[in-house]
Each structure stands twice: as C-alpha cells, then as structure tokens.
Amino acid sequence: MYLALARKYRPQKFADLIGQPHVTKTLQNAISMNKLYPSLIFSGMKGIGKTSAARILAKAINCENGPGIEPCNECETCKEITEDRSSDYIEIDGASNNGVEEIRTLRETVKYKPLKNRYRVIVIDEVHMLSNSAWNALLKTIEEPPEHTYFIMATTDFHKIPATIVSRCQHFEFKRIPYEAIVTVLKEICLKEDIKISDYSLYLVAKSSEGSLRDAKKVLDQTIALSGGEVKDKDVIDILNIIEEEVFINLTKNILTRDRKNIIEQVNTLTERGLDLRFFYIEYLKFLRNIIIFKSVGESDKLHNLNPENLPELKDILKDIKEVELLRYFNAAKDLEISMRHTENPRIMLEYLLLKLSYFPSLVSIEEVIEKIDAGNSSYKSKDNHVEVEYKTTHLTNKDENREVEIKKSESLNNKVEPVISDEKLKSIIIKKIEEENPRLSSAIVSSTIFFKENVLNIKLKPELDHLYNVVKANIEYLKKILSGLVKKDVEINVIIDKKEKKKNDSKKIVEIRNDGNIKSLLDEMEGEIISIDNT
Prior knowledge:
The chain is of the alpha/beta class.
C-alpha cells in the first residue's frame, strides 16, 4: 500500500518539528530537568505537529537510551511507538470516544503500571469534543494522575476546553507554520522522491495550505499523482482551483491606469472560464489586503502571501499610490461583500465594483487640496477630465475630531476644486467641542442658525432669543480659536439677530391685533378706526 507523504515524512524527533521552537525547547528542558508536567494541552490549527510532538515526547521519555531530549528512534521502544504498536502509548480520538463510559474505562486503565515502558502516555486528539460528563469523569485523574502516566490532550478549539481542566494542565500553543518553511520542507521531499517541480508550484502549494504542513504534503501528493513525476504549474493551478496572482496584478494595473475596456474584457474572460465570480471577489479582497501590507509595512515578507517573484513588479505598480488610497480601495470593495454574496448577478456587481475602483485614481485627496489652499493657490486641477466625481473622505483634525469633507471635481480641467464643510456638519462639530467646557454657549449655538461664507462664520439668532446675543458676543474669541482649529485658518465671526424673522413676527402680531374681537367691538362702539400700531 502507498504510504502518504504526510505519514512517510512525519517528524520523528524534536529537531524535525517545523515552526515550533518555543514548544520543543520547553519540552526538552523539562525532560532534561525531570520537571515534565503530568498533564499537557497542545492547541493550534490542524496539521502543524500537535500529535507528532506528543508521539516524539512519548518516545523521548521512554527511549531505552534515555530519557533524553531526543529519541534515538533505533531502540525497540521507539520503533513500537513510531509504528503505533506500543501497548503503553495510547492515542485515542476524542470525537468518537467522547462519552463518560469511554473515559471511565480509560481511567481504570491508567491505574495499572505500564507493561513495558517507563511511562504510559495517553494522547487524546480533538479533546474538545468530549461531553460534559466525560470531562467531569476525567477531572480528578487529570489533576492527580498516577506517577507512571502522562496525559497529552490535543485540540484545534482550545476555548472549548473547560476552565477547570485548563487550570490543571500546562498549555502549549502551536503556531501556524510560515509558508517559507513549508516550501523548504516540500522542496526537500521532492528531491528525495525525485520529483521535478518549479518554485512557483511549490509556492502555490504552500500558500494553499494556509500554514498546515500536513495539508501541503497532501496537495503535493495529489499533484505528483496527476503529473506522473514532473509537476507543471498548470496542474497545480487546476488541482487547487486557484486564480493566478498575475490575473489580480493585471486587473490592478487596469484599475490604476483607468483602462476600463480591459477591465470588462478581463471579467468576460473569467466568466468564460466558468470561474465562480463570488470566489474571485473574495480572492481579490485577499489580494488587496496583501498589497496594503506590502506597501505599508516594512519587512512585511512574512505578513503577506504574495509571490516573491512578483514583488518587484508590484513595487513598481504601487510606487505612486499612497497607503491611504489603497485602504479606500479595500473599503469600497469590502462594502459590496453582502451584495456579492446574495446577488443573482455576480458579474454585474463585479463589473460595477471594478469600474468604480477605476475612478478612484482620478480623485484628489483632501490633504492635497488643503496644501494648495494653504500655499495660496486658489485653483487646483483635477487628474481626470472624464466625468464629474463626488466623494467623501474623513479627515482628522489636531484633536482627532472627525469631519467630512466633500470634494467635487468638474469635467473641465480648468474648474476649481473647493473643499466645502456643510453648515450643519460644522455646527455639530462646534457644539460637540464646546458642550462640556461652555454649556451655556453650546445652548446658544444649538438654538441658532449658522452659515460659513467668505471666511466669516455667521451666527443668526431668532428675535425671541436676543438674550443669547450677549452670550455669544462674550465668547467670540473662544469661538474663533475653536473654528480656526477646524478649518486651519483664521476666521471672523458675525453675530446677528434675524430681522426678517422679527418683521415677520411683527406683521403676524399686527394681524392678530386687527382681528382681535374685543378691539373690533370697541371700534364699533366709538365709531373709530386704527391709525397705527406701536409694536415696541
């Protein structure tokens, strides 16, 4: 029977464990000092060496040439454990042996001394699958195991293990294996198996495993079976059903150069390939995330999953784009996630998204506009003359107050671009900044109407609120300081009583007086008439 690569090249000593130096060093020190904890929990994602580490540990403490920090793998005891035929090494599946009866049987077994080895080692894989009653049955044995027994519990869901169990065990968290380490291991396996494979194919296999060495070996097995000894890139792509990174790179190029014709043609090609466009959308989100990391973080090779061979090209493509712009791209794409998931026409939604992104390079950032204004340049040319684009961005002031600035760019290259803060938005920002320091002034602003025009903030009060006039006037300098911090320049403030509103109210009172029944009766009796009304 064919022996799968994951079993054939399973780690047989601590030095073979990839990506877990913190675990191996601690266990080896514990063995050498004779301070190995009797109950251990190994947690982490699938395929990163938890049960392999448990088996190596069992061999190390039972080795006929030990105990030692490494098993010899030559003695009969080591061979028996390696070949899974040792009566003193018990490895059970917690998913299928999760009942209280199985745990009671196990508890009775560990009472007796090992038949041959120094220690009996019990490994419970996927231990989080045990039932509550099974955990209760195991609790006392875990806390005070026989001196000849070690418990090792492996799990992919550490948070599901009861706290009462965790408190009685020593916990080791296994890390996701870096893809570079996976590529190295796969390359060594291919050399031993005399398999021809490109670095790019190895990269694809390692990337698809998402940190699981076992999964990477499984995929490599499949590609070898398909190719017959010489693995081709196309075979790996077909098996993994992945999208070549070059597709995303070309698409990004078309977006940044606003080549909308090629964008639509690329979507058409993907559709003709029969590719699931929802899957493509998710993968493109991941690609955007990766290039943001690549652009934003120095020494980011271990933080993204980009093909190292494509990094020089990506660096050239992204040289003129800022990190904040890439975040805007990602945010716009992420906003369509629910729509893409539920739409019956993913092609339309994908085309809409990509075309929308293609207009982003034409947008002028608020920072650029403010710089031009501060420099005294009253006009600013847009980057694109195709269409009028309107968008909103968030700008942080010196006190981390959010303000929305709307920038409108015209079709004509000669038109001006002016940042406009809506009066209502400005009012709400001012109120928020002063409501704690000066609540009386805040109440006056709440009751007023404000509008910003020609570097002057006009505060208009209704006639019946003229008592607030002095409150505002007394705080003019305070308001100027607040406002200057918001708009980044000196401003004037004008406080006015709404005379139109006053006249309107006066007219209303005159009408009420003329129509008053008592006054009309008095005029009739006196045979008189109203000559004037003093509204003071």
